Amino acid sequence: MSSVRARLILCALALAGLSGCGAGNDFSDLQAYMDEVRARPKGSIEPLPKFLPYEAFTYGAAALRSPFQPPIKIELAKQQKGSKDIRPDETRIKQFLEGFNIEAFEMVGTLSNTGGTFALVRGAGGVHRVKVGDYLGRNHGRIVGIDEAKVEVIEIVPDGEGGWLERPRSLALKERS
């Protein structure tokens, strides 16, 4: 019988709680909002913003020095003067590896067979086999020597005064880390 009594008390409390929900018919805040909405002028939708057409951008500093590398200090008194006799061959067909900076490459090994000695360089999205006479890097770099420890490259760079300089570079063998 106590469970019946507990149920009756629970129902009475629930009815008392629900009777408070409908006691006040004060919808004045809702009515004020509806009046405000109805008072707005018809057709006052804001126009869409004007969008500017997309303008393509071509990056023009790809051939310049990377801003993440320290600049090379050149003393003007010791600066080498270029020669009018040295100049890159602009008529030859460019090789694939000339489209990348030489700093992007690292030597990872060598191969030797009856055809000669080849160097393996990593960069430009893979490992490439190069030989003496191939070109590497954007500064007309021609491979002039390959041994087990390094690849020697001669680059032809402008001297800033209308001439060209030959600048030696080398790619050292990267040891496995």
UniProtKB/TrEMBL annotation:
Secretion signal span: 1-23
Keyword match Lipoprotein: yes
InterPro entries to which the protein is assigned, alphabetical: PilP
Lipoprotein found in the keyword field: yes
Keywords, comma-separated and alphabetical: Lipoprotein, Signal
A Pfam family: PilP
The name this protein goes by in its record: Type 4a pilus biogenesis lipoprotein PilP
Organism expressing this protein natively: Metapseudomonas boanensis
